[in-house]
Amino acid sequence: MLFTEEHEALRKTVRDFVEKEINPHCDDWEEAGRFPIHDLFGKLGNLGLLGVHKPEEFGGMGLDYSYNLVVAEELGTAHCGGVPLAVGVQTDMCTPALARFGSDELKREFLAPAIAGEMVGCIGVSEVGAGSDVAGMKTTARKDGDDYIINGAKMWITNSPSADFICLLANTSDDKPHKNKSLIMVPMNTPGISFSPHLNKLGMRSSETAQVFFDDVRVPQRNRIGAEGTGFMMQMVQFQEERMWGAANVIKALEHCIEVTINYCRERQTFGQPLIDNQSIHFRLAELQTEVEALRALTYQACELHVQGKDVTRLASMAKLKAGRLGREVTDSCLQYWGGMGYMWDNPLSRAFRDVRLVSIGGGADEIMLGIICKLMGILPGKRKD
């Protein structure tokens, strides 16, 4: 994928923003378990970074997805994963279906302020009994006149305690699991919505995450995105950009892990020589950097085909799978070379080790990615590729 001067200018804008507005505060935000999301999103909105590939008529830049990929990659230079995750929820998880399939009325009400950073969004798919198994979710939205009455609960919802709206996937009929779901835009100040205390997560500590409960929550049917019963399909489409965003966001984060480990191994003396002089260590770091470059190539290829309007389900799933597994490999290997220092909670590798573990779980677990890839290869048991 070839980047233009415009891509590189955008890359610099994001990198400068991270260095000025995010990295100086990461330690404090990690300790607090939250960051000033409305304030930070307002600044991102002022720079246009929350709507890079969203339509211009609703405040976006109207650029293709390759520009958004640049934003995701550069946000990976943040010294914590939670803040980039919160941004990714806003740009690539709770708004793609709205931008692509939503009515102009819904776009004016929710998309435009999300792009401007005036509203914070979240995505409501996962439940206690239905994480990667999206078809198994139980939350319902039953018709009552011109409204829906929503009952159920969503789990592990990033941004939810501070969110202004949720893009909610709910069962709107008793049809088959893949045909009975709809995406509905729900304002978070609607009566009947409540939250659990903040969830105490292993990583991504600076992002707010909670369980969201819906008790006879009434919203107009006009808040539905697209036709009733098409929510599962829309969410599957929405997942593709989420997975590409996640893979791109990991690239620079893993390069940073390798870079700081190289610097540490140059300074750390053992048995009369710098650690970096051990062949097993510098060969391993070279291997890891090579793997990161392979992830970059795979992610860029998926993005390029996506920009061309092609189906990237296979490549996006592969990139997401590779990002999660490589993230675990890089952070574990690099942490090892820090020895006891790497085991300390505030060590950069320790934080990255905890944060990157989510990549193999959120947005579809590794096993789901493998199932998708196998299906598209025609090698599922009892299945043929026709």
Automatic annotation (TrEMBL):
Top-level taxon of origin: Bacteria
Domain Acyl-CoA oxidase/dehydrogenase middle: 122-217
Any GO CC annotation of this UniProt entry: cytoplasm
A GO molecular function held by the record: flavin adenine dinucleotide binding
Domain Acyl-CoA dehydrogenase/oxidase N-terminal: 4-118
Gene Ontology terms describing biological process: fatty acid beta-oxidation using acyl-CoA dehydrogenase
Keywords: FAD, Flavoprotein, Oxidoreductase
Domain Acyl-CoA dehydrogenase/oxidase C-terminal, chain residue ranges per copy: 229-375
Cofactor(s) this protein requires: FAD
PROSITE patterns named in the record: ACYL_COA_DH_1 (PS00072), ACYL_COA_DH_2 (PS00073)
Family classification: Belongs to the acyl-CoA dehydrogenase family.
Protein name: Acyl-CoA dehydrogenase
